[in-house]
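Training component of the fellowship. As part of building independent skills, the fellow (R.M.) carried out the full modelling exercise for a liganded target. The chosen ligand was pyridoxal-5'-phosphate. The inputs are recorded below so that the supervisory panel can assess the work.
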Amino acid sequence: MNDLFQDQLQALRSRSLHRRLREIGSAQGAQVATVGRTLTNFSSNDYLGLANSSLLRDAATAAIAEFGIGAGASRLISGTQSPHVRLESALAKWKGTSAALCFASGYAAAVGTIPAIVQKNDVILLDKLCHASLIDGARLSGATLRVFPHNHLGKLESHLQWARREYPDARVLIVTESVFSMDGDCPPLEELIVLKKRFGALLLLDEAHAIGVVGPNGRGLAAELRVGHDIEIQMGTLSKALGVSGGYVCGSRSLIEWLVNRARSFIFTTAPPPALAAAALAAVTFLSSEEGEKRRQLLWNRIKILREALPPCPGLIPTKSDQGGGSAIHPWIVGDEQTAVEMSRALLTENFLVPAIRYPTVGKGSARLRVTVSAAHDDVQIRSLCDAMARLAT
Ligand SMILES: Cc1ncc(COP(=O)(O)O)c(C=O)c1O
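Fellow's submitted model of the complex:
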């Protein structure tokens, strides 16, 4: 019998869009072990180096001793164990909201929350560079979806006018991110909030790559700009700077109660292992502390070193937001998919792990290398990568 998928796989290969899994035989960190070699890792979202920290390991180990491994059932059936409850109150306190709800992943948070908030006769206005989880959540909701060009407030305003004219009674939800995952830049959030208020829209802000990185104690862009009270749905993930896994939504008590009753990716899945919630709680507690803030400052010191040492190449943009901020994500946009793959391979031969990001993660023809820096990197590792990138550029 013919293998049904061989032709489709071949078509991906011929367009340099085929992907393979790479086995990593170690914990996450500034260095990782692959089969037979050690790579310096500039591919991870473990921005604070917490994923393999004793802080999180100890919290998880203690929780395993007390609560075991599996949660047994969904949260509504039998799985709301104390670590989940403690984590949610800590998240709400940290983000300055009345309540919080955790999901098994950031992806699950998006695809559960958006359809719970808007339905068929509503409207979603989504930034063009939003993450796949937000796009999937928007599609799943059945609401009318309009995409506005990346960070383009003029287009967003005309979409809002259109929505209010065509759907006067609809709920209108604007969806954007604090730090865009493949570009590393930020939205003009304050201006966007002015618009959203003018048109009576709701705002969902995904802080996935800002949490732990941006704002006082890593509380995100909303906290940095002191606009949290103007954002109805503050979403994020525990899987990046917090070093664990899981997603969350912070907001009003009624929003959270509604999600408990309506978010299908929350209701119809087994609760995450309680040990993960305990580890995430340790990460949030750490970030709220002076020591955590020092770690975040260390990350910014590393980001500064990288920015200053990056070679001056077209497409290699040290990302900065309108507010002058930026992030730990630095894309080198080369366009062609094959070129990006070859550049990633060339860096691999020098023992640097830097992923080639291609369609459908980014648009066709905007393939890139995505360099992420962490507080766990040292000066020498960062400068060596920049030297290798400079060699690649010549
Ligand atoms: C902006 C954004 N939102 C959501 C997610 C999904 O988060 P998770 O990896 O926890 O499912 C990601 C992760 O890749 C992301 O980049």
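The panel noted the following from the submitted structure. The mean pLDDT is 94. Residues 105-107, 110, 131, 133, 177, 181, 206, 208-209, 237, 239, 247 surround pyridoxal-5'-phosphate (CB under 6 Å).
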